[in-house]
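Let us walk through a complete example step by step. Step one is to write down the protein sequence. Step two is to encode the small molecule, NAP, as a SMILES string so that its atoms and bonds are unambiguous. Step three, shown after the inputs, is the structure prediction itself.
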Amino acid sequence: MDLEGRTALVTGGSRGIGLAIAQKIAEAGARVVISSRREENLAQALETFRDQTMVHAVTAHVGSRLEADRLVRASIEHFGSLDIVVNNAGTNPHFGPLVDISDSQMQKTYEVNQAAILTHSAAAWHQWMREHGGVILNIASIGGLGPESGLGWYSVTKAAVIHLTKQLAWELAPSVRVNAIAPGLVRTELARGLWENNETEITSRIPLRRLGEPEDIAQMALVLVSDASSWVTGQTIVIDGGTTNQPTGGVG
Ligand SMILES: NC(=O)c1ccc[n+]([C@@H]2O[C@H](COP(=O)([O-])OP(=O)(O)OC[C@H]3O[C@@H](n4cnc5c(N)ncnc54)[C@H](OP(=O)(O)O)[C@@H]3O)[C@@H](O)[C@H]2O)c1
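Step three: the predicted structure of the complex.
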């Protein structure tokens, strides 16, 4: 899984799953652009890379098409190419019944989790991949596979990511492969409220008996952005310690 000579962009690359993926891609020899909203988060992240000449940080809000176009342009200008885009940035401003979410929470979740997948893929296609080919990897969630208590609208946007992955893979083939990862519960800031105070209870319900770590997701990400998966497109790979592989409760 040698990525030498390639350039990757990882949105939300300043911490958590995005940073782990960016580090894994850099270790495989690629040049990496990491983006997030806050400069100080990116500065901290940059320090964790072994060879900092191979990493470039750009502040950008994924919820804006103008910012997406600017981010992709800045990546190509800095390293001269853009072979891999990892649409990782995500958010969840609302926890509770779906019927109680506000319009602004709905809009923000839609823009960051769902629309950004398309705007960044489109920018990469128009500015580089249509001519040179490439690989896109989207970070979905097992929430997108079925109902979840408290995470209703987030899960709706993640279900859309799974469908966007199929649609983009169909439209951009054969020159661009598009796949997704659907993680279960991973130990990051975004999910802290879900695991921090009841890890033992939660892990007792996960067949592999532990939370996911960002590294668990990054290892599969490396496979999906490299030539090791050169005949794979339109797929969503579940990485969840077996969370979604449970008996159905005897129905039927
Ligand atoms: N953790 C889990 O259990 C879990 C499970 C399933 C799926 N996921 C998905 O995995 C992805 C990564 O999540 P994570 O858990 O690693 O979250 P995280 O630790 O909170 O990291 C989120 C990253 O995205 C950036 N970000 C947030 N909003 C942004 C915006 N509007 N524009 C640009 N960057 C933004 C953050 O940096 P700034 O704050 O500096 O912008 C940060 O770098 C998300 O798509 C999430 O939905 C996570």
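Step four is interpretation. The beta strands are 7-11, 31-36, 55-59, 84-87, 134-139, 176-183, 236-239.
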